[in-house]
Amino acid sequence: MVMLHGGRASTRTAGRCAATFVCALTALATLTGCELAAVNVAPPTASVVVHAVLNPDVDQQVILVESSLTGAIDINDRLKFNALDPIRTAGGSPVTGADVRLLTGTDTIGVRAVETVLSNRGTGRYVVARAVLAVVPGRSYRLRIRTTQGTQVTGETRVPSADASWVVGAGSVAQPLTLSRTTDTVRLTWNAAPDAATYAVRIESPDGPWFLFSDSTRFALAGTLRNFFAAGLPSVWYPGFLQPLSVIAVDRNFYDYNRTGNDPFGGTGLISSVKNGLGLFGSVLPLLRRDVTVVDRDKVPLDARWVGVTANTAAQRVDMDLWLEGPGPTISSVSGRVRTNADRATDRYVVGTVQGENIRLVALVGASRSDTLWSLVGRVAGDSITGTYAPKFATDGPRVFRRQARGVPLSSP
């Protein structure tokens, strides 16, 4: 917009352009202010959301019924998760007092599910015990939900069939297996379920489950497998951990629901299997389970057993089996297992990081990285680890650990 004359700008032209620019900004601000006027939008109508997967191996069938969130009610997202109150403690809105029934064949009455009640209030968790209704492979079941507001939600599923050798619970019995992560591959085979939509292979890990569908009755899982469902593509297998591995046959409803999802740009993409509501009413048939104890070769000095030599309780002995789980250019990840009590009967899982001589170790309450029992920050010097416990996650355990030969790995938690 500024004209150049002999290397100098024309101030007259520049002045006119500046004035025009200011006017344009003023007009734009005025226009924008009109366009951004506040508009009250009514909240959408809430839908009944269902999650229920029938399983012949379990002692009770669980049906979760909740309301979709519309912003009309306040949600407490700071509650500790409770498996008996899973909807409210996960930030949802339970639908309580509903008439929830499972039906089969030509039955029009069905078996009524009993709602779990905690602190004199319903949870939206409804159960049907095996003694009342035993779910059988190859049989079809219907779900009928009637809310106190008069909404009726229905669904139907056919449980995958089993072969003649099937017995209740057989597919859920864990068989122990040891995996050396650097060198081993877990190879699985199972009997076909002819009317299943597909098969699901699942591994539990501290970063959340690794989960994949397979249309084959054979599957190989390398020790170097990465978890593409978790940020940073961490390893699936963690040395020191016992990680459950399962294979289940699934019906079409389960398969469709879990292979789809919601997109923040495209909107709802879930394939729902219930009518007049949203969610899943499906079924599975457990085929096998392995409890995989993961170990690895000792490659660096940190890969060893570390024994606590100081503790506030004289009778307490603390052993840690540690491995350098994921070497990095500056920061490396650590995993392992720790036994913390005097009778040496209880183990905990350990994750952490090491950067040069600095180490941070976190013992887990269970098997999830999000549940911290205690946290130790310290220094690795020669054959010793010396540190202090974080105040928020303190313990009376030892502050000094000495390296020893590993020997037999610690037992499972």
Integer count of domains: 4
In terms of DSSP E residues, the strand content is 35-45%
Radius of gyration: 29 Å
CATH third-level topology of the largest domain: Immunoglobulin-like
Q: Overall 3D geometry?
A: globular
**Average of pLDDT:** 85
What's the helix-strand series? EEHEEEEEEEEEEEEEEEHEEEEEEEEEE
- What's the main sheet like? 10 strands, mixed
Amino-to-carboxy terminus distance: 74 Å
User: Helix tally?
Assistant: 2
**Percent range of helical residues:** under 10%
Low-confidence stretches: 1-32
What's the β-strand tally?
27
What is the CATH architecture assignment of the largest domain?
Sandwich
Class by alpha and beta content: mainly beta
Question: How does this structure look, described?
Answer:
With 413 residues, the protein is mostly beta strands. The protein folds into four domains: 4-35; 48-158, Immunoglobulin-like, CATH 2.60.40; 170-295, Immunoglobulin-like (Sandwich); 304-404. Helix content is 8%, strand content 41%. It contains two helices and 27 strands. It has helices at residues 11-35, 252-259; strands spanning 4-5, 8-9, 48-54, 60-67, 93-94, 99-103, 111-112, 114-118, 121-129, 140-146, 152-158, 174-180, 185-189, 198-203, 210-214, 218-222, 242-250, 274-275, 278-295, 304-308, 319-326, 332-339, 347-355, 358-364, 372-381, 384-389, 400-404. Strands 3, 4, 5, 8, 9, 12, 14, 15, 17 and 19 form a ten-stranded mixed beta sheet that branches. β23 and β24 (358-364) form a beta hairpin. It starts with a strand and ends in a 9-residue tail after the last strand. Residues 1-32 have low confidence and may be disordered.
